[in-house]
Amino acid sequence: MKITDHIANANGKTLFSFELLPPIKGQSMDGIYKAIDPLMEFKPPFIDVTSSREDLFYKETADGSIQKATYRKRPGTVAVCAAIQHKYKVDTVPHLICGGFTKEETEYALIDLQFLGIDNVLVLRGDARKTDSGFIPTPGGHCYATELLEQVTNMNNGVYLHEYQDTSYKTDFCIGVAAYPEKHFEAPNLKTDFKYLRQKVDGGANFIVTQMFFDNSKFKAFVNQCRENGINVPIIPGLKPITTAKQLINLPKIFHIDIPEDLCDAIHDCKNDKEVKEVGIEWMINQCKELVDFGVPVLHFYTMGNPEPTKRIAQAIF
Ligand code: FAD
Predict the structure, then answer these.
(1) Which among 89, 102, 250, 299 counts the fewest CB atoms within 10 Å?
(2) Which residues form a coiled coil (predicted)?
(3) CA-to-CA distance for 299 and 18, rounded, in angstroms?
(4) What's the pLDDT tens digit per position in 78-100?
């Protein structure tokens, strides 16, 4: 079922969902199931599975020379989605990214998804490779999420690459896109970033999922700006509780978000990460309560494979 239908059927009740990473190459699905099982009692209507592009790795061989290899550390997004859908009878949302995939490979992935009965996709540009200073498009692939979105909407209109037949089957994907209440780090300002978000919605995006944030006022301002400018699709807040003191440095560095002073101060007062986790969970529970009052359709958690903090928050909210 489409995310938009899940939201419509909830009649204003806030839903619970979460996101997982595929297993590292060479690992089994057991870790995924262990990350899902504790959260199923909160009846998520859908679970997201991230995608990643290839990275460059350097390895020293026995003779001392350096070997360069390129591979994807966490392949298998489509298969992980299918496995979850099959085992838990819950919808899945595979993330589709521009980086690392040609348009043809994307088309084949979308055809696989359609055959597997996966109705939703989250289309993204994707992160840069760790060894690159910025995002470098893959030759034959897309540069921006808008272009990938266009490919999916084309297929929803029965338009495929290299058409050779008179008619084509129309897919019916419900399409999500990303947004950044605190601005995407490459955008010169919020207004320009918003202009491209608008393009994504005008181009057919059915729902929005946001980057994590710790200050609800920024999310609310972002939602209000969307509504005032005619963006009326559901906006799903992305959430992640802080669990270690190191994240005070890592989260802003990786995700380009601010951490409110009060939260920072409370974490600085902690003696160890056990205490930090309690502070992080408490902060997130308060954030979630306020977001439910604000009327968000879904609370979407970036679990990063660790379900326990999210479970404690969900217990307090649902
Ligand atoms: P875009 O919408 O393409 O925007 C990228 C930048 O370009 C922005 O600064 C935007 O303002 C600008 N821009 C957009 N269109 C144009 C245009 N036509 N011309 C000029 N500038 C333009 N990354 C992964 O690798 N895998 C994942 O699974 C993943 N999941 C994510 C889930 C969520 C909910 C979020 C918020 C992010 C996720 N990311 C993921 C990270 C994301 O891929 C990065 O933040 C990436 O840098 C931007 O992706 P985007 O889809 O927002 O890009």
Answers:
(1) 89
(2) none
(3) 8
(4) 999 999 999 999 999 999 999 99
Token pair of 143 as six digits? 């540069």
Instruction: Give the mean pLDDT of 130-159.
Output: 96
Does 125 sit in the ligand 1 pocket, CB within 6 Å? yes
CATH architecture of 3-317: Alpha-Beta Barrel (3.20)
Active site residue 107: no
Rounded to whole angstroms, how far apart are CA atoms 216 and 293? 11
DSSP per position, the chain: --HHHHHHHTTTPPEEEEEEPPPPTT--SHHHHHHHGGGGGG--SEEEE-----EEEEEE-TTS-EEEEEE-SS--HHHHHHHHHHHH--EEEEEEESTT--HHHHHHHHHHHHHHT--EEEEE--PPPTTSSS--PPTTS-SSHHHHHHHHHHHHTT--TT--SS--PPP--EEEEEE-TT--TTSSSHHHHHHHHHHHHHTT--EEEEEE-S-HHHHHHHHHHHHHTT--S-EEEEE----STTHHHHHHHHH-----HHHHHHHHT-SSHHHHHHHHHHHHHHHHHHHHHHT-SEEEEE-TT-HHHHHHHHHHH-
Domains of the chain: which residue ranges? 3-317
- Cα separation, 36 vs 47, whole angstroms: 9
Residue nearest to atom 32 of ligand 1 (CA): 178
